[in-house]
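[Solved] Which block belongs to which protein?

Original post:
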Amino acid sequence: MFKRSIITSVLALIAIVVVFTQYETYTHNPWTRDGQVRAYVIEVTPRVTGQVTHIAISDNSRVEKGDLLFEIDSRMYKANVSKTVAAEKQARALVAKAKNEEQRSIRLEKRTPGSVPVLTLNNLANAVETAQANLEAATALVEEAKLNLQYTKVYAPTDGFITNFNLREGSHVIANSPVVALIDEDSFWIEGFFKETDLQGVDPGDEALVTLLMHDEVVIEGEIKSIGYGISKSDGSTGNALLPNVNPNFQWIRLAQRIPIKIKLDNVPEGVQLRVGTTASVKIIKE
């Protein structure tokens, strides 16, 4: 009986030590399984409207900065370039005509003072300025038309991955309406959501260890880049009939809110591909 009591006491002591050790470890190294892979998603938007005539990419493919994504029917924009170039030539000819008339009147006035009224000379000078302004406007229209022609070819703005791509040849795209999602390859980070009670002593620059759910055998080292300064309020938001939404809770339970922490990964091992939205576990090593 005495021996059994000793064994029970030893096992209880071991359990207490283990629990205390785990608690100390968790206190000094907060850990969460509520983490996600994040990255900047660029919404590739055509600058002009038209029908898609050629697609150079496929869904879930990698592209490099400057790669052609797709082309828009350029015939109308080529015609517009020709039209604006012709208008520019016409404006330039009107400038030359206005200058010739002004110079002829000035020479005549010099030979025979008083032969040309001052008002006429002023009107001729104004005509030259107007013609020059019209020429500048025509030149600007030419530049705009050439830019629109260039915009019929849409290129990748950065290295990254095309995802959820549904555009097809023959589709009609509208200017300033996004049509392609491009995940920036160099912008991946981990966002971990920690209880507010775990953040005491946690600072930017602290080391973090990340394990991805789809690669749970690999531990990736990272560094805390920033800690969120606020989260959205749930209670008190407007609901039906403009009344506040208030969630029921127990008076003796105070639930800790979760604060987002952004973690930059140092070196992602070869063979590990980060994918936006996948699950990650994060452990913080306090300095």
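(Second protein starts here: sequence line, then its structure tokens.)
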Amino acid sequence: MSRTVYCEYFKKEAEGLDFQLYPGELGEKIFNNISKEAWAEWQKKQTMLINEKRLNLMDPNARSFLEEQMKAFLFEGKEVDIEGYTPPSK
């Protein structure tokens, strides 16, 4: 049975994540307020950021940078700035 959440990213009711994918309080907030679809969007952006900036996820600075980007993207409606990437026009 899938859960429905009010997705803060898409501003609508949508299918929620099956389980908490991120630790702690932020993970709980994502689980309760972000849809599967929005999380998938973030995962694509995160992969592009990791590749472009050659982030080492063992580095705490890289992880906190990604977390800041994730919060801005999912909850503040900020587009992730990826150099040399032009999003397809809608």
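Accepted answer:
You had them paired correctly. Confirming on the second one: The chain has one domain: 4-75.
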